[in-house]
Amino acid sequence: MSGTSPKLKVFTFLAVLVAAFNLRSAIVSVGAVLDDLVHDFGASGSTAGIITAIPGIAFGIFGVAAVPLAKKIGLSGALTSGMIVGLIGLSIRPWVGNIWAFIFLTGFVVMGIAVANILLPAWIKLHGGKSTVALMTVYTTVLGVGSTLGPLSTLLFSGSNAWRWAIFIWALPAVLQVAIWLPMWWDKKYDFPAETVKSGSTGKIWTSPTAFFIMLFFGLQSMNAYIQMGWLPKIFIDAGVSPAHASIGLSIVGIMGIVGGFTMPVAIARTRDKNLVWFPVVFGASMFLGYVGTWLWPSQGWYLWSFLLGLGGLCFPMAIALIPARTKDPRITASLSGFVQPVGYILAALGPLAVGAIYQAIGSWSEILVGLALGTVVLSIVGFRAARNVTVDDELRRSK
């Protein structure tokens, strides 16, 4: 955005803000009304499990198609197309009469979000200029805000159709999003042209060691995040913590995500490489202590363990911020994002399912928490390597 007018800069910031806000609110709001939704549709518990698993799996499946789509119609075109598809799902799904129609339209919602997950970092890289770090800060911070506010829409409505209105209301920011992005598409329809890509920088993205470790880092932290979102309140409640305190504990984790979104892009841009690599080690150690504390003294220090798990969750905004920070060419940024996030979200979907299956088999959280704690050691090692100041572009050139 260097050299552009202040008005255009404000419009670009607004475009990133509304896009980031819509990436999570429409998903987490469903979890808050899941019991009422299942009851009204007369659905089974296993069908409810499908609804909870859709986001992670769909992010992986549809995310793969995002980069090829952007190469055909441009980054702005692909992003706007996804937003329109998502708006269709958000507008219709609350009013359908059976669970399978709801699931089908939820696929529309997550399809649009999946495209934005992959392409928004590349769009910021291409159009951000000197404001790239600031835009990434807006992106990762507002992502956390959307996650935190999403479930609160249930407080606005009452009555027999309250759950329908509670998820329909998120179509309103989606309308605003489409209204802002449509002019961006028309103005930047061909904003991903081949001639802007530096020759010699392309290659098989998975041949880059840095890309591979960022993918693992993103995947492992996503798995931990989804496990915590799905199971942490129950772990606390089973240990004697009140349901209200268990919910507050999960909110503490979410608030730390907002803090991380605000700080990590700036930290990556300003911290020397030899110091930056220790960030994931510190975050991993914090998550380790959070799991161990939840295992040994859950009811005595639930607020402290939640804080430590939330601090460890700063791995998420760090992994997101590494995608544009460790690439030079916007097309490589898009390819890296398209490689990192689909795999990461598939791991995120499988993690909670595995924890549920293990708990059903053994009936205890102790072994699960010990396993999760040990897994943070791997997370720290992988994050240490992912954070090195090496660009994927350079590694791809050397591998050709």
TrEMBL record:
Source domain of life: Bacteria
Keyword Chaperone in annotation: no
Broad class of where this protein is predominantly found: membrane
Membrane-spanning parts: 42-66, 73-93, 99-120, 132-157, 163-184, 205-227, 247-269, 276-297, 303-323, 343-362, 368-387
One Pfam family linked to the record: MFS_1
Signal sequence range: none
GO cellular component, one term: plasma membrane
UniProt keyword list: Membrane, Transmembrane, Transmembrane helix
Occurrences of domain Major facilitator superfamily (MFS) profile (ranges): 8-391
Mode of membrane association: Multi-pass membrane protein
GO molecular function, one term: transmembrane transporter activity
Gene3D superfamilies: MFS general substrate transporter like domains
Subcellular compartments: Cell membrane
Protein name: Cyanate permease
